[in-house]
């Protein structure tokens, strides 16, 4: 039986190799050259005003927190409101910068609920970290208004949102800072890389220094100007987080196919939705009409006591789903937030992500859906 995996990246191999070849031929594989080309291509594609290419979105999220902390003089222990239903990067970056993640609850979109955020605001709250779960924007507009009203910075963890549209624009437009992931299993797969997109040019310039250890000028810019190559200042205690030309070469090719790839993802999700609609045990994630999701994930909710059994059953059929995510407050370092977000905790017990990638055929999707339906027929509640 053919194995059906959760995620399988698809690369346009010959085109990627041709782009990488250019880097190898001119002998420039680091920051600059293709990274600049890709930043420009991403700005053009998204309409976002700034874009700085990084080696991951994790470092982008950390830089976002670090830069705002530096700019506004936030103090250690100041608070960022965040979701417990996410990949651990989202919350680790807050701790890395000695700030406190304050967990707020999610709604049926699996994104943060504006009401829950509001209830967690204190005099020490500085920002909201909002995850567009699976490509879903949830009630981002309301969150943006809430942040404006309360003078809070809004950081969008857009790891799942490459190509997602919200209110007719790329999700992330009109947000203080949006951070995208181009990790190998994301919608725009490279191997590992990401992009930080500030609204403000000044912060983009700061990110360029901070992502290269705080060094004041990048080597590529200096080499173009024929300046002294060794003379620079170090303005910040930065990180080594900038991206490189080999990753950017792959990204440039993959970007050309992003819209068509996301359309295929949406078609697969539509097929799942139709086939699984006969199954009363399944609850679907809410999608509001103002979002055209990038559909990084196809998540459904099933009765919590049957989820593990369903996963085992699917595995026996050579189908390998995933779970996004274990609630972060179950991890020791975040356990102070346990039992504070009942909706997210319930969702974390119920969610399962069915296989979703570009190599799935209609028959594969039908086989997955059929196996889920069969499972519930055998396990009638
Ligand atoms: C919600 C979310 N945020 C951040 C990240 C981190 O992305 P990267 O691997 O590019 O650092 C991921 C990756 O899985 C993610 O799913």
Number of helices: 13
Give me the CATH superfamily of the largest domain: Type I PLP-dependent aspartate aminotransferase-like (Major domain)
Query: What is the number of E strands?
Result: 13
Bulk shape:
globular
Bound molecules: pyridoxal-5'-phosphate
Please give the CATH class of the largest domain: Alpha Beta
Query: Describe the biggest sheet?
Result: 7 strands, mixed
Q: What value does the average pLDDT take?
A: 96
According to CATH, what is the topology of the largest domain? Answer: Aspartate Aminotransferase, domain 2
Class based on secondary structure composition and strand pairing: alpha/beta
Beta strand %: 5-15%
Spatially, the strands of the biggest sheet line up as: 1-9-8-5-4-2-3
CATH architecture field of the largest domain: 3-Layer(aba) Sandwich
Radius of gyration: 21 Å
What helical percentage do the residues reach? 40-55%
Order of helices and strands: HHEHEHEHEHEEEEEHHHHEEEHHEH
Termini Cα gap: 29 Å
The stretches of 5 or more residues where confidence is low (pLDDT under 50) are none
């Amino acid at each position: 039986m053919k194995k059906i995996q959760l995620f399988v990246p698809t690369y346009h191999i010959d085109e990627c190799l041709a782009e990488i070849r250019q880097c190898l031929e001119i002998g420039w594989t680091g920051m600059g050259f293709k990274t600049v080309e890709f930043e420009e291509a991403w700005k053009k594609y998204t309409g976002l005003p700034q874009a700085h290419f990084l080696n991951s979105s994790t470092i982008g999220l950390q830089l976002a927190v670090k830069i705002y902390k530096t700019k506004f003089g936030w103090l250690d222990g100041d608070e960022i409101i965040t979701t417990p239903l996410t990949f651990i990067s989202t919350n680790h970056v807050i701790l890395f910068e000695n700030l406190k993640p304050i967990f707020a609850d999610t709604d049926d979109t699996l994104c943060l609920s504006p009401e829950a955020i509001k209830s967690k605001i204190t005099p020490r709250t500085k920002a909201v970290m909002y995850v567009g779960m699976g490509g879903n924007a949830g009630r981002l507009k309301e969150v943006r208004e809430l942040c404006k009203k309360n003078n809070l910075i809004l950081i969008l963890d857009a790891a799942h949102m490459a190509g997602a549209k919200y209110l007719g624009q790329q999700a992330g437009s009109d947000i203080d800072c949006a951070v995208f992931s181009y990790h190998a299993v994301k919608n725009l797969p490279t191997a590992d890389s990401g992009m930080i997109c500030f609204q403000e040019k000044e912060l983009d310039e700061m990110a360029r220094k901070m992502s290269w250890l705080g060094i004041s000028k990048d080597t590529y810019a200096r080499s173009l100007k024929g300046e002294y190559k060794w003379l620079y200042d170090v303005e910040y205690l930065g990180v080594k987080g900038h991206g490189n030309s080999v990753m950017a070469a792959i990204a440039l090719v993959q970007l050309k196919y992003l819209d068509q790839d996301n359309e295929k993802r949406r078609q697969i999700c539509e097929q799942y939705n139709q086939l699984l609609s006969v199954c009363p045990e399944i609850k679907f994630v809410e999608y509001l009409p103002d979002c055209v999701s990038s559909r990084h994930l196809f998540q459904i909710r099933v009765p919590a006591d049957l989820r593990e059994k369903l996963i085992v059953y699917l595995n026996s059929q050579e189908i390998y789903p995933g779970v996004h995510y274990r609630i972060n407050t179950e991890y020791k370092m975040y356990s102070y937030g346990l039992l504070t977000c009942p909706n997210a905790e319930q969702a974390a017990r119920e969610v399962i992500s069915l296989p979703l990638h570009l190599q799935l055929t209609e028959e594969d999707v039908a086989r997955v859906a059929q196996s889920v339906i069969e499972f519930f027929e055998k396990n009638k509640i």
